[in-house]
Automatic annotation (TrEMBL), chain A:
Belongs to the TAF9 family. CENP-S/MHF1 subfamily. The keyword Repeat does not apply. It comes from Macaca mulatta. Residues 110-138 are annotated as: Disordered. This is Centromere protein S.
Amino acid sequence: MEEEAETEEQQRFSYQQRLKAAIHYTVGCLCEEVALDKEMQFSKQTIAAISELTFRQCENFAKDLEMFARHAKRTTINTEDVKLLARRSNSLLKYITDKSEEIAQINLERKAQKKKKSEDGGKNSREPAEAGVVESEN
Amino acid sequence: MEGVGAGAGFRKELVSRLLHLHFKDDKTKVSGDALQLMAELLKIFVVEAAVRGVRQARAEDTLRVDVDQLEKVLPQLVGERGSRRQWRCPAGWP
């Protein structure tokens, strides 16, 4: 029994490590863009630190989001919950709200395109399966 | 990936896994739109940290952004996410 528990813990740990590695890669790319734009380099430790920070922030975000949805008596987190996360800063909230509308608009156009394609006798859609439930409510 | 923003960004699947890792309830789900928006939020978070690090490095006249510079800008970043206006450079850099 003890061995099983250990393996489970190890599995969770190595899973987390893989996620952190993925974060690290994206953070590296983003910092590279900033570095080019601002003409200033980042040390490797800085990139690692930002990655770690991002990973930890996700925990806060996830728990908050879950609570927001539950408060609204939903099990599915939607864009309104995400906007609540951004409430502390006016400029961030505005940016996120604008992005939210942009995303909704793009998805709407995509659906319209898909519908047109299938109506014209086109075959399968190009879109990969989306993780989670797709909702169009706002 | 998505055409919402040019350049690098967080993939939806990664964001989904990161969030699900910390949910208390198995039944909790995330809508596709919310995932995309979270990807944007995370991107801003990272870019903001990086940009503030650069400003700090410039204020200190160092050649690159090290953890020393990052540490100084972290409290504001984590406490007040994205509130650019409130940052004031001690050296008077614009």
